Amino acid sequence: MGAVPAFRFNGVRRTLLTAVVLFLLLFLVAPLVAVFSEALRKGLGAYFAAFTDPAALSAIKLTLLTTAVVIPLNLVFGVAAAWCIAKFRFPGKTLLISLIDLPFAISPVIAGLVFVLLFGRNGWLGAWLEAHDWHIIFAWPGIVLATTFVTLPFIARELIPYMQEQGRDEEEAARLMGANGWQILFRITLPRAKLALLYGIVLCNARAMGEFGAVSVVSGHVRGQTDTLPLHVEVLYNEYDFSAAFAVASLLTLLALVTLVIKTWLERRGVHATRSA
Amino acid sequence: MSIEIEHIDKRYGAFRALDDVSLEIPRGELTALLGPSGSGKTTLLRIIAGLEQPDPGQGLIRFQGQDIAKVPVSDRRVGFVFQHYALFPHLSVFENVAFGLRVKPRRQRPGDAAIKQKVGALLDLVQLASFAERYPAQLSGGQRQRVALARALAIEPEVLLLDEPFGALDAKVRLELRRWLRRLHDELHVTSVFVTHDQDEAMEVSDRVVIMNQGRIEQIGTPQEVYHRPTSAFVMSFVGQVNVFKGRLPGTVSAASGLHAEGFGAVYFVRPADVDIRPLKSTGTEQALTVARIHTAGPLVRIELAGRGHELITAELTQERFQQLDLAPQQQVQVEFRTVHRFDP
Q: What ipTM did this prediction achieve?
C-alpha cells in the first residue's frame, strides 16, 4: 500500500490527459485558429467584404430561411413523436424509435439522392410536379426537405429520454383535475421539458445551418439562388478565393461556438438535473 | 358520494391484478385498502379514478348509483394524491393548487380574485399559507404532500383517493401527517379511500379497512373487527404480530377463549398480547418453555420463549405483569393462551 500504486495511477492519468490535450489541439483548436487566421489574412476590410457580396448575402438569406422553416417542422414532429413514445404504449413503438434514428445512420448524400429520386425531373413525382409548375429539386423547397430529413432526430432524441424519465404522474394529476390534452401538453409536459426542448432546438439549428451533403445534392448550386452558406464556402474555395471562403466559414464557426456556449449554459441550468419534485 | 364496485377484473398479461372484486364504500367514510405489494390495492384505486380501465366484462363501478364507465377521468370529480406527490415542479405552490381552477372551461372558470381567495383558504387548511410563492423543490416531503392534498381538494372532489400518501415520508412525519389527515377528514367528510401496506396506518386512520391479497378482498370491517375477528389466516397474520402453531398448542388455553378440542392438522394463531406467562407448575412437563430473550424497551415487555417442536413464541406483557413475574433469561415457565384463533387449512 501507499505511494507506489498512487504514483503509477498518476502516471496513467498524465498519459491519458496528454493524449486528450494533443488530440484537442490537433483536431479542434488548430482548425479553429486556421479558420480565423485565414479569414483575416487580407484584413478586416476584405473580411467584411466577403459578407456583403450579393452571392454571400443570398446564401445567408437562404440559410436563415431554411432554418426558419426546418426548426418549426422539427419542433412539431419532435414534440409529437416524443410525447407518443414517452407517455403511451402502442404497437410499433420500437420501430418508430428506430425510424427516428434513421437520418443518423444514413449518409446525407443518400438522403439527398432519395429526394432527387422522389421529386426530381425523372423522379416518381417529377412529371406531376412539372405539370403543376412546382419546383422542389434545385430550389429552396428541396433544400428545406433535405435539411428537415437530416435534422429530424435532434429534437425528438433530446425530448424522449427526458420525458420518459419524468413519468406520467404529473400528467395524470393534471387530467384528474380536469385538464384536457392540450392543456396538459402546454401547461405541464412542455414547460417541464423546456430545457431539453431548447437544447434540442440549439443542436437542430446548428446542424440545419451547417448541413452540406444532403443539401449539396438537391440544391443544384445556382449561385445567388440555391447556395446555402456551406455550399457558398465550397464554391469560393473551389474558385481559389481562400480568404472569402474562410471568412464565410468563420461565420459558420462562430455559429458553432455560440451553439456551444448556449449548450453549456443549458447544461448548467440543469437540462439533466431538473427532476420532478 | 358512495362508491359501488362490482365484479371488477384486471389482468396484466398472465398476472391477475384484480380477481372479481366487489366492494361498497359508504359515503363520507375514510376507507383503507390494506395489503402487501402486488395485492391489487393500487390497481383498484387507479381503476376507481379512471386512470386504468378494468377488463371488459360484467364489471361495474358506480358513484352514487351512477355507472361511471363512460365518464371521462377529467369529469369524475376525483381528487387524487400520489405517493410521490406529483406536484408540478415548474409552478409555485399557489399555482399548483390553483391549477384545477385555471383549467376549467371558460364559462365555469372563477375569476382571479375568486381563485386567490379559494387557494388561500385551502393553503390555510393545510397550514401552508406562508409558502404560497415557494416552489415544490423548496419544501419538505410532508409539506409537499400537504400541497398535493390542497391541490386535490381545490376541485371540490366528490371522492378523495390517496395512493400510499405517506409512503415516501420518514416515520415521524408519517405519524403526524396521518393523524392530521384523520382530523381533516372529520372536518370535511369527503368520501375517501387510501391505499397503504402499513397495517398500523390503516388501523389508526380509517373507519373501515379492506384487506386485499393476490387480487382478492380477504375481509372488510372496522379496524376492531379485522384485528379481533379476522376471518382468515392471512388477515390474522397481516394485521398484527402473531404466533402460529400447527396441530398442537404448547400451553394451556384459558376457559374464556372459546376453544375446545385440539384438531390434528389444525393451525392456531395467537397474538403476543394474548400469551400470558405463568410460573412452571411441575418440572419435566412437556409444556415447559425457556425464556430466551426479554425486550423491555417500549410500553409492553416483549418476551421470546423457546420450546421443543416449534418456533420461538412471542409474548407481550404489561410492565406490571412483568415485574410481578420477576422473569429472567433461561428461566423455565409455562404459558396460557387467552384468545386463540383457529383456521383449518
A: 0.85
